[in-house]
Amino acid sequence: MKATKPDAVCISTYPDTHEVYAIKAFEQGAHVFIEKPLADTVEGAQRVIEAAQRANKKLVVGYILRHHPSWMRFIEEGKKLGTPLVFRMNLNQQSHGYMWDVHRNLMKSLSPIVDCGVHYIDVMCQMTDARPVAVSAIGARLTEDIPHDNYNYGQLQIRFDDGSVGWYEAGWGPMVSQTAFFVKDVFGPRGSVSIIAQSASKDGASDSVESHTKTESIRVHHADIDAHNNFVKEDEWINLEDEPDHQELCNREQRFFYDAIIHDRDLTKSMQDALNSLRIAMACDESVKTGKIISL
User: Fold this and answer.
1) N or C: lower Cβ tally within 10 Å for the chain?
2) Is the pTM of this model over 0.90?
3) Treating both helix axes as pointing N-terminal to C-terminal, what angle do 268-290 and 42-55 enclose, rounded to 10 degrees?
């Protein structure tokens, strides 16, 4: 960096290098786009944010679903469902070939419920203004191919102060079932909204990055019933014309990064959101390893 003096850098390495690389970039006067999670510890993530603030440079974290029109609509519809909300999400990946190499390397740093979970915890926190108050989680180590202190299957549960609850499940490995690898829905007193991935959920696609962001359609269910307990409204199907593929989503992230630099956007909230979702995910990881409910 001293030789090339870039205006901005993109950090897409494994999570255990994020903190060091980001802080070095800020110290050299560069803006930083960094893949999620922000760091492999909450304290490290806080240090990265502080480095960005000291350098007066932009820090954008790769929460790709924040740039996906269907996920933005999913969150918008979820906010209409009343309180409390029930979040149900997972991303199980029957990884093989190259993707099993990727996942094994990722698990040298973090578990699946932390590395992927930050995305879906972030979605939950965007849908409700409630404060998360406690988490619990379980996990299982199903292979000798990963570090002894890590696990390749996990499921977390979050409780919010308004009575909302949510769960997220993630498993990586050649032994993982792909029967229900893509569950993304939320329900509340007024009904439910679900992301339906049909072709993306076909056999063999569970470890495809392209499938993870492909929504295809959104189903909105209304809970209103008449005197005979029959539904008053039919379910609605929302098919957005703007359905970007994974590369286009990455392009949109980079355009957001560029815009933040050029127009000096205030990114304080997005940085704190990234820190908050990591804090919740790491508490879930602690719950797996200790067997205890963790208060936030």
Assistant:
1) N
2) yes
3) 160
